[in-house]
Design brief:
Blueprint (H helix, E strand, L loop, with lengths): L7 E6 L4 H12 L3 E7 L19 E2 L2 H6 L3 E4 L3 H14 L3 E3 L6 H10 L4 E4 L5 H17 L4 E8 L9 H14 L3 H4 E2 L14 E7 L6 E7 L4 E7 L4 H14 L5 E3 L1 H5 L1
Parallel strand pairs: 1-2, 1-4, 2-3, 4-5, 5-6, 6-12, 7-9, 8-9
Antiparallel strand pairs: 7-10, 10-11
Helix pairs in contact: 1-8, 3-4, 5-6
């Protein structure tokens, strides 16, 4: 007799990376998902070895086979790698959750175009807590309007290459959407080149890269006589993996289109 609660078959790209390993383990531990494939490059030391915790599943570079037997794929890699994976996902009609950051405007336009053919969820941060935090930031921005000076401070480990983080930019975009303004016009990324007093509507970004900091984001709303801080700190990568797997299960049932974590959490 078949179970009434069938598990979602999920494959993972860049499965040997820090996030990839955390996600594969999260899927293996889940009672709502099955790990259907774990992708890595053929030259990697883990290639063809069994994924830790799985029954008999080896790391593979056969994207077509893995995608064909999966209901959804999770990808935390690099922009060029993600775009190549999207092409394969379209061929196999497999929805894709992308946690990759650092896309150029032209590259992200390709992601948007691809979402007309398969469901795509792009999330610079898959933590449920961070995305609730973004909702709180948007609400605060809408209520404060142009009364507050806004600064965004983000901290990550020394290995992260893009800056500011995709999450910090997403927070800035949420503030601008709530106030009907443009982040492109308001964002200030460097202050040492131009000596001037801040404009009231500036959104300043500060970046820290040090040690093994998992991820910390703080938005400061500074009024004349009081300051509001809205902050999120990741204790470990498990929060990103938990959110990614839950969102991927949801994405597997969606129609073609481009989705965000805000769509998932409602």
């Amino acid at each position: 007799m078949q179970s009434q609660h069938l598990k979602t078959a999920i494959c993972v790209n860049a499965a040997t990376g820090k996030m990839g390993q955390q996600i594969t383990h999260q899927i293996i531990e889940s009672d709502k998902a099955d790990l259907s494939a774990a992708f890595c490059r053929s030259g990697h030391p883990y290639f063809n070895k069994i994924v830790r915790g799985s029954t008999n599943l080896p790391y593979t570079n056969d994207l077509s086979a893995g995608l064909s037997m999966s209901q959804v794929v999770i990808d935390f890699s690099l922009p060029t790698v993600s775009l190549a994976l999207i092409d394969k996902a379209i061929e196999c009609k497999t929805p894709i959750l992308i946690g990759t950051t650092g896309f150029s405007q032209e590259q992200f336009q390709l992601v948007e175009k691809a979402s007309q053919q398969i469901p795509i969820l792009w999330a610079p941060n898959t933590s449920i807590g961070v995305n609730v935090t973004i909702s709180l930031i948007a609400k605060a921005a809408a209520q404060l309007g142009n009364q507050a000076n806004v600064e965004i401070i983000e901290s990550h480990h020394k290995h992260k290459v893009d800056a500011p983080s995709g999450t910090a930019l997403k927070m800035g975009e949420a503030i601008c959407e709530a106030t009907h303004t443009s982040l492109r016009k308001r964002a200030v990324f460097q202050r040492h080149r131009e000596k001037r007093q801040r404009k009231d509507d500036d959104i300043g970004f500060s970046v820290i890269r040090a040690g093994e900091i998992i991820g910390e984001h703080k938005v400061i709303f500074a009024l004349d006589n009081e300051v509001i801080n809205i902050e999120h700190k990741a204790q470990n990568r498990r929060c990103f993996a938990e959110g990614a797997v839950k969102a991927a299960i949801w994405l597997a049932k969606q129609k073609n289109g481009l989705y965000s974590m805000q769509d998932f959490i409602g």
